[in-house]
Each structure stands twice: as structure tokens, then as C-alpha cells.
Amino acid sequence: MNSHLDPRAATAAPQGDPMLTRRQFTTTIGAGFAAGLVAPGLGRAQAGTIKMGSIFSYTGPAAFLGDRMKRSVELYVEEANKKGGIGGRRIELTLYDAGSESTKAVLAAKRLIEQDKVDVIVGDGNRSDIGLALVPSVQRAEVPLMSVSGATALVEPVKDRAWVFKSTVNDTEVIARLLDFFKKRNIKDVAMLNDTGAFGVSARDQLRAQAPAAGVNVVYEEFGPGDNDLSTQLTRIRGTNAQAIICWTVTPAGVVFLKNAQQLGLKQMLVHGFGFVADRYMQLAGDAAEGLYLTSLKFPVADQLPDSDPIKATILDYKARYRAKYNEDTDVYGGQAWDGISMVAQAITRSGSSERGKIRSGLEESIKEFKGVGGVFTFSPQKHWGLAKSDVVIIEWRQGKFRLVDL
Fold first, then answer.
1. Using an 8 Å Cβ cutoff, are 272 and 292 in contact?
2. CA torsion angle for 107, 57, 55, 72 (degrees, to 10)?
3. Distance between CA 164 and CA 332 in Å, rounded?
């Protein structure tokens, strides 16, 4: 079975919608499938391809997260199709670049639903504000969406998010884990510097809700996701009792935070949220990133986990397959996309159908103790995010490497 990219793969979007780019990934079908053979339990109507759509931002400010997500989904589809697809049906993947903009992502979702007629969407532009902009479209069309973004509001309340799932942890659990770490370090006064996008605002709201019970006093500042100078906010923070400064963003403004803090000679503990665990951001920050603490899933420190850890082998296997294909390392965000499409594939396999409602119920019913690269996932009709506080660790960037600090 020969793998190839469809000739339409590199074509631009049709005129009238020039901001979208489209890639369609297909694989030649073997003779047995061409003859109409399908897996047991799949009816005639299920004999076509499984149509998956993906929306990632692999250009624009969020590209540092989205490019490896995109490649991970492409790799999964290529490997699955070489093995005969899912239940004997190949996956047809249509990709759109959101360009780090909600408007483009909404247009892409509309096209995936109405023109490409996909069965499921994996990826929501890899920014919480973009993902939230997609929720009305998928809810209205009743198309399952596997989000790769962090804000809790993407999947809560479930009654209003019945078609949305996520392949990463909620910021509710991440903030709780960070407060536990502060308690261990006897840190009782902190400053929160969040961006004004949905990811930053959601984390700020979670900290406001949880900090009082944890006995932590917080001073709040904010910045725009595209800001290139945070010295004013940091100067105000310098005049407070903050022992630690938390920055929450997925944009390059997080590099500005580190450099401005260094320029101002700040000695407080510096902490970034789980949307900034990218070696490329660390490299851009240079020595200003040295000693930075981050909340993270276990992925970046997989080699430092005990062999008994339930997902260590899963992480190392995915990392090896990605490197073999692309001759570069992947990251925790590529892993989120890998987990997302893997869980969708399991839901289709277990339900025996790629019908949209079956995929949704398959995710709710069949994802139990699923060992992904991000953690051990369990979904239910009442819970569309699969991870817990125990899946979150504290790491630091030191001497050019992420190092495990608190497991």
C-alpha cells in the first residue's frame, strides 16, 4: 500500500476565502478494501473513508505550538493507513491553518462541516480563545471536536459542551497543582501576570477561586498577547511582597516577560504556565530562562520518570516515531494532538462506526484508563476532559534542558 499526498494537498483555498490554506492527506487503498471488504460490525454505509478534519495554527504567534501538532496528526494518519486504517477504512484527513486567528478558525470549521463533511474535528487552533470561538459551530452542527487547548470553559459545563472533548488537562487542575507546590516551598505571596486571551483569563479566574483557601495572597496584572514590553507591570510587582511571579500565556510575550524580569533584576521565583513548555521559547529567552519553573504534563521529562510510571513507555515510543519520521524532536503539544487523534480512533474502533453521534458516545464510554502521552485519560458523559491534578508536574529549565522538580 503506497502512501502519498493527494495532489490537492498544497492548493490554496478557493477564491473568496484566501486566508485559509488546506491540506488533504490520503492513502491508497488495498485491493481487499477496494472490493468492498469492511471490518465486522461496519455496515455498507460505513464502507467509505473516515473523514477527519483538523484546525491548527501553524503560522502566526501560536505556530510554536501548532506545527508539531499538525505533524503529529499527519504521522498518526500515515501510520494508521499503512496498517489498513481503522476497521479496514482509511482515514481522509483535511487540515486547515487558523493562522492564530479565531475568525479564520471559524471559517475553517464551517468548511470542514459543510463542504468537507467531516465526521470529527481534531484540533481547535491550539489557543483557548480560538477553541472557544469554535464551540458554537460544532455544537450547532453536532460534530465531535477534540480540543487541544487548556481553558476549562472549553469543556464545561458539559451540558453546553456536549460535542467537545479535550486531550489535555484543565487549568483548574494545573492551578491546584501549582498551589500545592507553593505550599511545599512556603510561598504565600505571589503575583499573577496573565495575558488577556481566554487561556490567560481562565487561569487568572481559577487562581482567584482557589488561592484564598490555599492561604496564598495574589497581586494581579495583565498584558495583551502581542505586547512586547511588560516592564511597567513588572515594576509594579517589584514593589509588592510577591515571592513568586506567575506568567500565563502561549504567545512570545512570555519571552518578553523573562527578558524584562532579567533586565529589572527581579529575584523572585519565575513561573510559566503549561502553555509555555516549549524548548524553542526557552532558546529565544536565552539565559533569562535559566531557572524558570513551569507547570507541565510529564512529557518533557519522560526520561527522568521512574520506569514504573504508567505512561513513560508510551511517551518514549511516540517521541521515537516522531523523530524517525521528521528527524527532529517533538514536544508536549505535539503529544496533545497525538493523544487526541488516538482517542478518536479508539472511539471509532470500539463503537464500530464513524457516525458523529457514535464517535461522541464512543469517547464517553470507551476512553477509560487510556494511557496517552499526556497522562491516563478517562472520559464519561459528565466529564469531557480526561486528566487530573496527578498528571501535572513541576519542572524547571536549567542548563538547556527541562528537569523534573516535583512529581
1. yes
2. 170
3. 21
Please state the domain count of the chain: 2
Q: What is the band of 301 on the pLDDT scale with cuts at 50, 70, 90?
A: very high
Alpha carbon distance 337, 108 (integer Å): 18
Whether 298 and 340 share a structural domain: no
Render pLDDT for 95-152 as a digit per residue (tens, 0 to 9). 999 999 999 999 999 999 999 999 999 999 999 999 999 999 999 999 999 999 989 9
Pair 9, 133 in one domain: yes
Do 13 and 153 fall into the same domain? yes
Indicate which CATH number applies to the domain containing 326: 3.40.50.2300
| Residue burial 124-157, b: 16+ Cβ < 10 Å; e: rest | bbbbbbbbbbbbebbeebebbbbbbbbbbbbbbe
> How far is the C-alpha of 20 from the C-alpha of 256, rounded, in Å?
29
* CA neighbor of 145 nearest in space, from 378, 344, 361: 344
The C-alpha angle with vertex 98 and arms to 150 and 335, in degrees rounded to 5, equals: 45
DSSP annotation of 287 reads: G
The Cα 65–Cα 333 span in angstroms is 6
Same domain for 22 and 165, yes or no, is yes
**Same-domain pairing of 25 and 130:** yes
3 state SS of 404: strand
Same domain, residue pair 297 and 192: yes
Closest CA to 134 of 152, 158, 161: 161
Residue numbers of the domain that contains 361: 3-169+314-386
